[in-house]
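Quick one: structure tokens for this chain, please?
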Amino acid sequence: MTLARVPLFLAALFMFTACPDPSTSGTGGGSATGGGNSTGGGTATGGGQTGGGTTTGGGSATGGGSATGGGGATGGGAAAGGTVTFAQPGFYEQSIASAPDGSLHLAYYDGAAERVNYAHCAGNCGAGASWSQVLLRTTADLGDLSVGVAGIKVDSTGRVHLIIDGVSTTSTGQQIVYATCAASCTTVANWTFTDLSSISRGSTPINTASTVMVGPGGRVSFFTDGQVNGSPSRYYSCAANCSSPSNWSSAAIINGNALHAVLDPQGVTHVVFDAGNTAAGDGLLYYARCASNCGVVGNWQFSTNGFITTGTTKSLTGFTVTASGRVFLTYNQGTASVSTADNRKLFVASCAGTTCTDLNTWSSFTVGALDDGTDGAWVEAAGEGVVLADTSSFDLHLRACTGSCDNPASWSAATVADSAASIAQVIAPATGSNCPTTSTSASWWSHIPRVAISSNGVAVVHNPYAIVSCPATGVQRLPTIGRVVSSF
């Protein structure tokens, strides 16, 4: 694995942007705040066991059809890397994954057209010409009001697994669709689409962040969203032949909303979920784990207290697990009513072992400046190394660690991977506003990064938005575009 190359990748990104990070001066990794539970305490009603049982059945599998692609990618750079812009407005819910051959697979929701697009790059992924994409599904195809992407993964054989979610007001709309493709996936006829909605009508993964998992044996699983003391998050699972709805099962597992789920190499499923708020109104992020047979609620362990955040930052967190099973959670606490000394700080918290449901066994440290990560943070592991991507005002930052990543001294300093100035060289931020040539101020803002690590290098995708001030109509926030920064 090429995690050892990540510091070189960060140096290369520095060259791409020609924009040194103003918040660092060569000292690595931000400031450490010590170990223990950095979140303050507090208990909540979430996180307990919810009833369940398993249900199966329903739905139908449908094949291919024809469709046209979802817009073009522009950009450049040599084979050493570069940045690609997906310029269509409304680039949302991006999910990126690497394949065993080192290629990249990207899925995103094209909000302006209400459709799900898929893109693939085999190499030289910093050049727009290296990306091919195709339209997979629209609202008309699924009978929905809106569609979206819940997550994409690639298994050890190179097969792509994608979960598409939908919003429907009818009993026939496809709210959960499992899509899969074995090869040549930029041809829509090579995909199979399976409607899973009838397994548990009304549940969707639309409010999850990243819960799609593929195990070494080919098991595909994911969570739907939920609400504390309301509709629980459901765990969907299929061991084989997943294009047949009858091979899927579903069970109510989490009293809350599952945000992230990761399967480690030992077969343990780790989850971070939103379990509502404290009495003072602060948000809570809980942790759960399951070693086997995770469709049975009794096989899960839940933390009894949560990490304190605010409602605006809970869904903008990142979560990953290393090869040895050490978990990492990154989040900005926001402005909470307790632990106020930690407000607006970006945390990296970690834990290893079976006792992680006791948050006192976690260690944590902070990185960056105040408010870093408030527009999104992400961690991605390869081996024992971890890459952290986070927003920092106008910029997108990357940091890397090749081992002992619970120690802040092991991390590199932040490098600017993308910036408002770099994006503006491709698309002026006031483009598409009410005042494209007369704005009094306009800038791009980095937003919701996602990272993929492959045998070829590292890539990060984010969807920056522009804020424009117009003389007559005031401040306007424009729809997002897509940006992929690749080291290869």
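Residues 3-21+28-486 form a domain with the Methylamine Dehydrogenase; Chain H fold (CATH 2.130.10.10).
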